[in-house]
Amino acid sequence: MARVRISDVATAAGVSTATVSLVLNDRVERISPATAARVRQAAAAVGYTPNTVARGLRTQRTHTLGLISDTIATTPFAGRMLAGAQDAAREHGYLVFLVDTDADPKVEEKAIRALVGQQVDAMIYAAMWHRVVEAPAGLPTGTVFLDCRPSGGGFPAVVPDDRQGGVAAVRELVAAGHRRIAYVDVAEDEPPVASGLRHQGYLEVLAEAGITPDPALHARGETSAAGGCAAVGRLLDLPADRRPTGIFCFNDRMAAGAYVAAHRRGMDVPRDVSIVGYDDQQLVAGEQDPPLTTVALPHYEMGRWATEVALGVREPPREDSTHLMPCPIVRRDSVGPPPTAA
């Protein structure tokens, strides 16, 4: 099928090709509204679509954005980052090219070359969880790092403010009257960046509340419901005078395991023990009984921020700085006052 040309639109509208070009490029200062409307109606009637390749050659802009990720596209947990990026790009007239590399360096290298070859106007390098990464070779200047930050700096980045997220979680328990508060952390072998930051927030709130940290209340386990169940089980088996009445879990899956550990011991949430999670993970946090109070990871907001900075419609604090996105508390029904006996 032959491509509809600008001359076809001019014939249908009864005007010159120069007039059609001006109208379709929104340069209508010297063209009457009636003529501009007739040209647009004719373009729609004959099915004209602009040649983006030719337009890109003229303007040196392709109105495309490249987003390279490890496993975001295949992970519903982090898919909100992609949604935020796509929404921001669409609002500014850009199309997102997504490449999910499955963390394969060779695929990543080819993807960077391909996107640069396609002359994308901007690039985002994203990770599924907060971590420090080595910046791959070949990334264009101005690439924005999303949910990760480059070890050597040099690029703008956005990550969740995990320390303040930990502060928000533990303050929720302190505000409810808890003094014996546990932190259920991940296993010690190669813990993620967020593990230490959330622990710092935990210790900060204990200090401001005048609570001496008890090392026995810093438990570790696998980042799963089973891991949380095992770690919280050990905490709940402590003597009554050392057993926690409030528990802050590294993530919502571990918090789901904490519910199981409590129920197996005939304990009620939050009557006997209060639990706070982290992530606000879909189909996990809100589906517990009672629904879990947790801290939300701002995936959508980070995706928007990264895209707006990459497109130049938002200025980062500094060209190579890391922006900490707030992690708000999401209050549900898993926190109450400590049991009277405590």
Automatic annotation (TrEMBL):
Matches recorded under Gene3D superfamilies: 3.40.50.2300, lambda repressor-like DNA-binding domains
CDD domains: HTH_LacI (cd01392), PBP1_sucrose_transcription_regulator (cd06288)
Domain HTH lacI-type: 4-59
Region (Disordered): 317-342
SMART domains recorded: HTH_LACI
A single GO molecular function term of this UniProt record: DNA-binding transcription factor activity
SUPFAM superfamilies referenced in this protein's UniProt entry, alphabetically: lambda repressor-like DNA-binding domains (SSF47413), Periplasmic binding protein-like I (SSF53822)
Pfam families for this protein: LacI, Peripla_BP_3
Keywords: DNA-binding, Repressor, Transcription, Transcription regulation
Record protein name field: LacI family transcriptional regulator
Organism: Isoptericola jiangsuensis
